[in-house]
Structure prediction request, 69 residues.
Amino acid sequence: MLNIYVAILLGILFIIIYSVFNTLLYNMNYRRMNRKENMNRKMIMINLISHGVIALIMVSVAIYLSYFK
Prediction:
């Protein structure tokens, strides 16, 4: 099983990674808004899929470390 200290450190690491990733995505979005462009379907799907992929990676790592190690 996963030690509590390792779980806390992994949680902090995942929060930092996810925050940086979201900052990059929303920085891209704010630049688009400043140019007065609407968000097209492709940009919505890229945003959705990229959030899903990063969340899937984080959950997979957490499950692997807690159950299969």
Observations:
- The chain has one domain: 4-67.
- The mean pLDDT is 78.
- The longest helix spans residues 4-34.
- Helices lie at 4-34, 41-67.
